């Protein structure tokens, strides 16, 4: 990983308010207002449930409950417009954010191509950045994150706009971290973004841990990964956890 530099160098409709669908709806509302309105209507109705939904998503993600998370979203969005596109995209996001790259790729292949697919470019670039990163394709990951950063910002309120910008910056920092080409403040950026984006919690924390180890700060890396769940064999995070823990246990990484 470091020496060889392969990879690292629902219950109710409240889940519609989670990070993945918000990201999809934001960009859709920018490119196709009528479609974005359809997708955002449930968010307006369930605005009071957003905090609870985020907490539930965070608990599932932090504890590695991928199947429960995917199952909850399946029920939440199955009756919404363009579910044949949205559902596979959401599945791919949850799987990629848990290190299950093969299943995430398969989910993307199942997504219907059409207006919703084209409108979800920002969402797809986030997923693709993660997948290329975790598959060890540093150049492709950097290219996808650069395309993401170059997209026009959606015409939304300042708080949502700031979150979109933060997610874009975090994806670029994720790609740089695993390419061992981090910028000075990337560890801080990744750690902050991990707190604000529940679904991206572990990808961003692992990236921050890589940055801290590369910078010779193993204690900070340990703090980032100590609470990680026991990942299944199919998740690349299982290997990441073992290797990062080994490096973080040394006085100087």
Helices and strands in order, then pairings?
Blueprint: H1 19-31, H2 33-45, H3 50-62, H4 66-77, H5 83-96, H6 101-110, H7 115-119, H8 121-134, H9 138-150, H10 158-178, H11 186-196, H12 201-214, H13 218-225, H14 236-248
Coarse shape? globular
Strand content: under 5%
Q: Mean pLDDT, nearest integer? A: 78
Per DSSP, the total helix count is 14
By DSSP, the count of extended strands is 0
H/E series, N to C? Answer: HHHHHHHHHHHHHH
Fraction of residues in helices? 55-70%
Largest sheet: none
Measured on Cα atoms, how large is the radius of gyration? 17 Å
The end-to-end distance, rounded to whole angstroms, is 12 Å
Supply the helix-strand structural class. mainly alpha
Low-confidence stretches are 3-51
General description of the model:
- The chain has 14 helices and no strands.
- The longest helix has 21 residues, at 158-178.
- It has helices spanning 19-31, 33-45, 50-62, 66-77, 83-96, 101-110, 115-119, 121-134, 138-150, 158-178, 186-196, 201-214, 218-225, 236-248.
- Helix 5 (83-96) runs antiparallel to helix 6, helix 8 packs antiparallel against helix 9 and helix 12 (201-214) packs parallel to helix 14.
In summary, what is this structure?
With 253 residues, this protein is an all-alpha fold.
Keywords summarizing the entry:
253 residues, 69% helix, 14 helices
């Amino acid at each position: 990983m470091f020496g060889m530099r392969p990879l690292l160098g629902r219950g109710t409709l409240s889940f519609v308010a989670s990070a993945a669908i918000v990201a999809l709806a934001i960009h859709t509302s920018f490119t196709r207002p009528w479609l974005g309105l359809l997708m955002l209507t449930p968010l307006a109705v369930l605005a009071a449930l957003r905090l609870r939904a985020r907490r539930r998503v965070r608990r599932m993600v932090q504890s590695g409950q991928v199947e429960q998370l995917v199952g909850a979203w399946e029920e939440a969005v199955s009756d919404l417009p363009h579910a044949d596109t949205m559902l596979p995209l959401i599945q791919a996001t949850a799987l990629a954010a848990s290190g299950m790259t093969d299943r995430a790729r398969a989910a993307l292949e199942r997504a219907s191509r059409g207006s919703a697919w084209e409108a979800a470019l920002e969402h797809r670039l986030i997923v693709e950045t993660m997948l290329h990163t975790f598959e060890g394709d540093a150049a492709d990951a950097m290219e996808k994150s650069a395309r993401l950063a170059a997209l026009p910002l959606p015409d939304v309120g300042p708080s949502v706009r700031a979150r979109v910008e933060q997610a874009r910056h975090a994806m670029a920092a994720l790609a740089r971290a695993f390419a061992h080409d981090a910028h000075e403040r990337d560890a801080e950026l990744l750690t902050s973004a991990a707190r604000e984006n529940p679904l991206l919690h572990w990808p961003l924390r692992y990236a921050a841990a890589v940055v801290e180890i590369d910078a010779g700060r193993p204690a900070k890396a340990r703090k980032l990964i100590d609470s990680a769940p026991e990942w299944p064999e199919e998740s690349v995070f299982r290997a990441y956890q073992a290797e990062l823990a080994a490096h973080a246990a040394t006085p100087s990484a």
